[in-house]
Every structure is written in structure tokens, then in C-alpha cells.
Amino acid sequence: MAMALTRPWHFWWGCWLLLRHSAGRRQSLTCWPCLLPLFLPPTTVPSECLRDLQAGLARILGSKLSSWQRNPALKLAARLAHACGSDWIPAGSSGSKFLALLVNLACVEVRLALEESGTEVKEDVVTACYALMELGIQECTRCEQSLLKEPQKVQLVSIMKEAIGAVIHYLLQVGPEKQKEPFVFASVRILGAWLAEETSSLRKEVCQLLPFLVRYAKTLYEEAEEANDLSQQVATLAISPTTPGSTWPGDALRLLLPGWCHLTVEDGPREILIKEGAPSLLCKYFLQQWELTSPGHDTSVLPDSVEIGLQTCCHIFLNLVVTAPGLIKRDACFTSLMNTLMTSLPALVQQQGRLLLAANVATLGLLMARLLSTSPALQGTPASRGFFAAAILFLSQSHVARATPGSDQAVLALSPDYEGIWADLQELWFLGMQAFTGCVPLLPWLAPAALRSRWPQELLQLLGSVSPNSVKPEMVAAYQGVLVELARANRLCREAMRLQAGEETASHYRMAALEQCLSEP
Known about the structure:
It comes from Molossus molossus (Pallas' mastiff bat). The chain is about 70% helix and about 0% strand. The chain is mainly alpha-helical. The protein has a two-stranded antiparallel sheet. The protein is elongated.
């Protein structure tokens, strides 16, 4: 009894309400989901209550119910999902069956509400079902400690696909007069969550909807921009999709970025996005979001979603650089983007904990510099020199020589700052090395600048101090590419490399192209 008295006041107040409301009523089993959301804490639910709530919901939703009985239970489950994720659902067979039941029921409700045009939509119920579908998407894509087994995941993905098809059908009917309604935003949100993980199915339907999504995101962005309401943009995803009376948040772009990142790889969707003006919109959005992280703004209050959004924008731009280089050259918005990247990287590479964003900015800037090499802004201006110096800093500090016990020779190892995130960083690093190599012959001032930074000398010194067996072939290729281009571009670079035992190092690592280049006058 002493332990029971320590339960939070939310619990006792709720019990009193339920007992008072259900006294003498046979339908008490299904009335309490209507009341519980009224006194659930706004953020987290006391852990001791979760087991009872889940067990009660499992009994209710596992019974044959009418819609007026089932809908409050779905809304309560959605509130719990928003507050606790999947932590309130027990692991094991019972938990996986319950989650599968939740997602199944949610998908059925969504299809019933949205597939038939002209049907009155119970927006609060469907929005709650969206939250449960989002929970299902998260669990289906979770590799470790997922509540669901693989056959259940396959089944739920198929069911959710049909529900997403209904969402697309609904959005295609939305006119301009409804675009400010929160339910439309909630529908775009669940579609964005789906597209972030799955773009191969419903491809035809998604392509058909893309013009609407671009126009919708542009409308919301421009209205927020006119109001100068950056705080509204920051708080977008902090609002519960199932909270009655939530203000219309406005930032649809952040919801769509992951899906658009996937779609820009594919020819058909990419052409639609370009035709509808998505790249220009994304450039403006990136510059606006970047402003939030610049000096003068309190970055400590920014949610992680802002930095993640910036990284995802960089990935989209990287896709466009590779697949649509002509667009980068002709669209003026990318010139503005390049200027921002150049002025921002020097400070960014010095900031603790922002290495992954710096990697994105450096790699994107290097790739764009190859395409915009004739731009006046890249002809040895202070901004361009500062950018390339910062890019060299990012590329050169990734690896160090590390002593090994019992051996006279050190091995090549990742720097401490890079080691923990190398899985996310390595593709950008290799792409950045390749892009820098491509910039050297296009920008005559770059090789002397690299020589002044002492990168080629220090790189050869690093290779000479470690065991060649510790350097992977792909690393050898990346290093050789940079050294060869610098040597070819500048006589002083060649001389400096020879003084640093460049020919001997090239022989040890079987860098035939570098060895030949250094043997020439």
C-alpha cells in the first residue's frame, strides 16, 4: 500500500474520474479511453501506468466494437505513441501482436475515411491513425530491438502501402482553399514519413502528386517567410499531430526532405521536381535554415531536426550535382548557395560536434566548385581561399599515425573526432577527395595554396611513418589522386614532394602514376 500511495496525482485523478463516470454502466470498458487523454501528462506518462494502459487497450481493441467505442481507444493509443514512442508496448509475442493490431486498425480507418470522395472525414480520428502508422513505419525500419518480426514487417508494409495510397488520393483532391488546414499538413506529414523509407512502391501515384507537394511546401514557406516567423519553422515537428487545437506549424519542407532526397536519384521524379521549381525552393530554404545556426542566434535552443534538415538538403544538392550538372551551372540560386558554403565552412570546421555537417558542406562545395570553376567568386578571392583552406583541413585531419604495441612501425588510424562517425562520414570524405582532385587543374591558384598549407608534404610524411600494409587500397588511391594532380599542376609542388621522399614513398605504396610524375623535370 505504501508503494501505491507514491503513484503520481495524474493516476489518482484519472481513477476517480473513471470510477465516477463508469459507476453502474455496462459500457465502462470502452468509456475510459475517452477520458484518459484529458489527464495524461503533456510529455511523459508515468511508467507504472503504461502496463495497465496497454493491457486495457489490448482488451478493448481485440474486441468486436462499434466505431464510437473503437475511435477513442485509437486516439488514446496515438497520444501514448506520441509521448512514449513504442516504449509503452511490451516486448515479446503479445507486444508484437498488439502493435500489428494497432497499425492494422489504423490503416483500415484511414482507407475507409479517405478512399471514398465526398465522405465526411473524422479528422481527429484519422490524424490519430496517422500517428499509429508512423509508429508502425518506425518499427518496420528498425533493425535492432524491433518489436516486430520480419514476417510481420512485410505484412504491415503491404497494409500501410494501401493506406498511403488513400492519403495520396485524398491529397490529390485538396484545393487551394484547404491548404492551410492542419489535417492537410498531418496528411503530408505521414506521407513524408513513408517516403523517407519507401519510394519504390506507388511510384506512379507519388509522381502524380509531386507538383502539389512542391506548390504546397512553397506556399507554406513563403507565408512563413513573409511573416518572418523563423521560430515557427523551428518548432514545427515539436507539435503533437494528435493534439486538439494545435497551431498550424507551416514547415512542410522539413517533412518532405528525406523523401525528396531519395526521389532526386531517380530520373522521372527528379525531372518533375526540377520542372516545378523544387531546387530553387530548396536553396532558399537551406539559406534560411542556415541563418538560424549563424552567429547572433542562440543555437542551443535549436532542435536536432534543423541540423539534420541542413544535412539532408546537402544530400539532395549532391544528387543534383551528379545527375543534373547543367542545372547547377545555369540556375542563379546555386551561385548564392556556393557563396554561402564558401563563407560558412571556415568557421564550421572549427566547431565542436558539427563535423558531419562540415563534411556535407565541404563535399558539396568542392563538387559545385568543379562545375562553377569559371565563376569570378572562385578566382582566388578571399572567400574561395578560405573555403579551400577549410576543406583541406577537413580532408587532412581524418587520419593519423598510431603506434601499436610490440611493433616498431605505426599504423594508419582514424583521428578521434572522425572515428565515432566514420560510418556516416567516409563516403563524403572519399567524394570530397575526388572532388578536390578535380578542382586542382581547373583553378590555377589552388596548387600553390595547397603547398602553402603543407598538406602534400604532411601527407607524404604521414604515409612514410606508417606501415604500408595498414593503408587500405582505396585510401592509397585517394591519396595518390590528390598528390598526382598537385604535382602535375605546379613545379614547386613537385620539388616539395621530392624533398619529402615522395618518389620513395610512391614506390613503397605502388603509386605508379605519382612515381612517374615525380621523375619528370
